[in-house]
Each structure stands twice: as structure tokens, then as C-alpha cells.
Amino acid sequence: MTGDLTDKRWIVAKGLLFFVIVTVSGALLIIEDDRWIRGALVVLLGWSSARSYYFLFYVLERYVGVEGRYAGVLDLIKRLRR
Fold first, then answer.
1. Angle, CA of 70, 23 and 47, to the nearest 5°
2. What's the DSSP call for residue 3?
3. CB 41 within 8 Å of CB 24
4. What is the residue-wise DSSP string for 16-81?
5. Sign of the CA dihedral 47, 53, 58, 63?
6. How far apart (Å, rounded) are the C-alpha atoms in residues 3 and 10?
7. According to the model, what pLDDT value does residue 33 have?
8. Which of 17, 42, 63, 81 shows the smallest number of beta carbons within 10 Å?
9. CA triple 7-80-6, angle to 5 deg
10. What is the pLDDT of residues 13-52, one digit of tens each?
11. Distance between CA 38 and CA 29 in Å, rounded?
């Protein structure tokens, strides 16, 4: 099964998983002591943060259909609640 992801629900689920990765790796970064794990968490945090940003300000507008531009995350949450 190959092809582009087109179902809006799965696109949003994918975006939410990026936020979960950001949150978990950020929390573990604060807790963890091992330098190798800490380095891997920094890389994971940077990658997932960039993907989350892309998801918020490009994917939601182009593929999910959130109309118009929004000023930031709080503005987006207000629009999605309406």
C-alpha cells in the first residue's frame, strides 16, 4: 500500500503524533542523564519540532482545509473550536 496520505483525520493524527514526540522528548531531555541518550533526544526534539511547525502552518491550511491564515497556535485552536 503506497501513495500519499489523503484522509484528513489521518493527517491530523500524524500532526498530533509529532506534538507527542516533542513533548515526550523534551520531558525526557530534562530527566535523562546519559549523554548519548541526551544527544539523541536533542536530535529527535529538533526534527519533531520542525515537522510540527510545518504541520501547523502549511499542512492544516493546504490539505485539511483550515480556512484563512492564523496568527499562531492559540489562534488556530480558537478557529478549530468553532
1. 75
2. S
3. no
4. HHHHHHHHHHHHHHHH---HHHHHHHHHHHHHHHHHHHHIIIIIIIIII---S--SSHHHHHHHHH
5. positive
6. 13
7. 78
8. 81
9. 10
10. 888 898 898 888 888 888 877 888 888 888 888 898 888 8
11. 6
Question: Are 52 and 20 a contacting pair, CB within 8 Å?
Answer: no
CA distances from 11 to 17, 27, 29, 31, 52 (A): 10, 25, 27, 31, 12
Q: What's the grid cell of residue 31?
A: 530527566
Cell of 15: 500532526
Burial group, residue 69, by CB count within 10 angstroms (0-12, 13-18, 19+): exposed
